[in-house]
Amino acid sequence: MTGMAALNRIGALSRRDAIIEFGYTFQLFLRFVNVAMSVVMFFFLSRLVGQADQLSGYRGGYFEFALIGLVVMGYSQACVNSFAQSIQRAQGTGTLEILLATSTRLSTLLAGTLVVPLVLASIDASFFLVVGAALGTLASGFERFVLAGSLMALTLCTFAAVGIFSAAIIVLTKRGDPFSTLVLQASNLLAGAVFPVAVLPDALQVLSRFVPAFYGLRGVRAVLLSNGGFAEVSTDLAILCAFNLVMLPAATWALSRSLRTAKVTGTLGNR
Hints:
Structural class: mainly alpha
Helix content: over 70%
Distance between the termini: 30 Å
Radius of gyration: 20 Å
Largest sheet: none
Number of helices: 10
Number of domains: 1
Oligomer: single chain
């Protein structure tokens, strides 16, 4: 398959998902309301928290700290859930076998499935930042977006790997997958999404070093809230690259294997 053909198929998959997602305007409106309320809630929570000692290394205060966590975890949730939801929808409508019977590569199917969820997550993130800026607390906190974007991309790739593992489980079990929910909750807790990891017990602080999102959040905050440069986050970048070198091939292999197994057993299109 040529690169242009792959792009055309990614575009077709994206248009399909866009019609489904953007066809419900009231649901989109509620999505924006939920984002705005989350930002306002954390803004007032930051007044209660004040300037904790664990946040002394960051500019601003708890609000800026938590806002970055909300943005990163919003993208992460999209990466984790998109593949499993797409697989379930295709199984339910009977289109999964048709898609896989074409010459479309698995990587193309996965990429096409991820476009619309990332667009929606970007809308959420923009809304987070706009509402946050309106509260007058983000003006001096966000710089060096290229470096922060690299950290974000690597972090999201690790969550995409989790999402692919989740899709592999869905293909075989035809049921909801508790695995991805557990990973998201553990990442929120151990990576320090909305509170510093320093407040956790020592044992959990050690365990947090095995969570990829810990390095992503630490690096993004170092760049955006502590004037960190490449030298300060090079270790985080290297560790995230190492996670991806292991997780992405393993996840893709797991999904390919589960699809082959479902084809052999004749259960690929069953609900």
